[in-house]
Amino acid sequence: VQLQASGGGLVQPGDSLRLSCAASGRTFHMGWFRQAPGKEREFVATAPLSGGVAYYADSVKGRFTISRDNAKNTVYLQMNSLTPEDTAIYYCAARQTRIVVSSIRFPASYDYWGQGTEVTVSS
Fold it and tell me: Which residues, in sequence order, are CB contacts of 60 under 8 Å at separation 6+?
């Protein structure tokens, strides 16, 4: 499975941005991680196939929304009320089988990764 992420850019604090990630094949879990300069890759959000529960990092809960279009094998990340702390390279990730809840926040739980799309929040 290949993942192609897009939608990053330079925005001002308080702005919104929507990221997209298209998969070349069917996946069960699709999610987003991010990595800021000098920091480790961190979990942002993940969603299983339709009907499942989405999970978010506490730092983005209430501001970011993950959604999926299973017909298009695509996952989206709607990011609202962006702050400079959201500046990072955002990576989409996927796995073709279910991930247990206790493991959804670990990068090692995902088998496939996109190339990353850069998000910069600055005034």
Answer: 44, 45, 79, 86
